[in-house]
User: Which sequence fits this backbone?
């Protein structure tokens, strides 16, 4: 199949718009308040509080900003340790490094690619202050176990739910389980505002200070509620609010959040059904969704045989006008990760996955013909590729630890 790249090029991501974004942005401009914390900011925050069930939501100009706020709220001091996976975006670690904290990297699970909860306790020391589970691809970490470990050791749990909007764990929305959480509305996510994020607060004792940090270290929020007669500088903080233009754009997205999620899940299921055959033939592995997790169709990835196979497939897709990409360079392998963090235990799964994972085009308005184009090229690639190897038994089922999971 030859795609014309000028006509049929299939991007990895294409931001989705609902059609109401400009209308709401014009309304925001008409209010003559664009600096943030206006009508649309409040509407978005109320939606998040209602839909996710958190005690308080504060919009931020990025998920990175929300994570930086969690580090301030956790009172991270130089030398304090924060346990997290290495297979995550740099902001997960950077937020704590900025406060002098030490990211402590542990391995991930081979099924969900999430923080391996069985390896957390061996990483805890007297300097440990928090655990940061990252919900990879919108699939939840094993939160009951993680929360129990945190209670046992008196640690904060900060959910990095950047990819987890409207996903659930045992019926609970991601972002509602840990003491704090951060979500993303970057244009690569399901629900977008271009750049944007939110801090979600589930511990009521942290709400007042979060508002102060959010408002540049002032008690401005309390002043506008009439709780103080003037506002002043009372704590550390920064400018974390997004503009009303971003909030107005986001509101148009949140109104259709469920519909957007349904579109993405439909694409996810299409890919999953098509690639089951190749998985059955032990040519590749598809994502695994544990029974307790309801995901949001944020990402569809394949786990290939090795780095060489992935590189060859990426190049083949590129020649056909299809953009498919790998994901993170593990933080423990990076220059900064080695400088600022430390590793506990072996990182076998992390190192292995980083070389073999390939993400496929995924966006809300992807057409069926585009999905077919992607799957057809991949099937053709492996039909030809299989002739170069007589042994296709490339995956060891023992690596999945015989977990009770649902791959449907």
Assistant:
């Amino acid at each position: 199949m030859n795609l014309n790249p000028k006509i049929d090029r299939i991007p990895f991501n294409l931001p989705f718009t609902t059609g109401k974004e400009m209308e709401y942005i014009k309304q925001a401009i008409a209010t003559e308040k664009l600096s943030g914390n206006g009508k649309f900011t409040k509407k978005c925050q109320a939606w998040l509080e209602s839909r996710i069930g958190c005690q308080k939501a504060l919009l931020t100009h990025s998920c990175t900003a929300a994570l930086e706020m969690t580090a301030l709220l956790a009172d991270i001091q130089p030398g304090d340790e924060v346990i997290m996976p290495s297979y995550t975006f740099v902001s997960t670690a950077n937020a704590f490094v900025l406060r002098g904290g030490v990211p402590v990297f542990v391995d991930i699970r081979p099924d969900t690619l999430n923080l391996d909860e069985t390896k957390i306790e061996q990483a805890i020391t007297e300097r440990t202050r928090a655990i940061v589970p990252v919900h990879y691809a919108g699939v939840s970490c094993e939160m009951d176990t993680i929360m129990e470990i945190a209670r046992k050791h008196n640690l904060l749990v900060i959910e990095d739910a950047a990819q987890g909007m409207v996903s659930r764990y045992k019926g609970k929305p991601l972002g509602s389980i840990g003491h704090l959480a951060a979500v993303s509305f970057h244009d690569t996510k399901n629900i977008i505002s271009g750049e944007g994020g939110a801090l979600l607060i589930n511990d009521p004792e942290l709400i007042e200070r979060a508002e102060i940090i959010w408002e540049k270290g002032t008690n401005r929020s309390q002043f506008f509620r009439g709780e103080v007669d003037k506002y002043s500088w009372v704590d550390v903080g920064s400018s974390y609010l997004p503009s009303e233009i971003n909030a107005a754009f986001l509101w148009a997205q949140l109104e259709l959040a469920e519909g957007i999620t349904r579109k993405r899940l439909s694409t996810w299921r299409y890919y999953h059904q098509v690639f089951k055959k190749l998985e059955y033939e032990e040519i590749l592995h598809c994502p695994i969704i544990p029974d307790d997790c309801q995901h949001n169709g944020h990402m569809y990835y394949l786990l290939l045989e090795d780095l060489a196979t992935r590189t060859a497939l990426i190049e083949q897709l590129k020649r056909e006008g299809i953009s498919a990409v790998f994901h993170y360079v593990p933080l423990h392998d990076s220059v900064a990760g080695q400088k600022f963090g430390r590793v506990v235990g072996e990182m076998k799964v992390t190192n292995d996955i980083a070389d073999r994972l390939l993400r496929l085009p995924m966006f809300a308005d992807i057409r069926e013909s585009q999905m077919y184009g992607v799957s057809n090229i991949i099937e053709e690639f492996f039909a030809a590729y299989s002739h170069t190897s007589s042994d296709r038994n490339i995956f060891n089922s023992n690596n999945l630890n015989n977990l009770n999971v649902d791959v449907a």
In short: The two ends are 28 Å apart (CA to CA). Residues 1-7, 390-408 have pLDDT under 50 and may be disordered. The chain is about 35% helix and 15% strand.
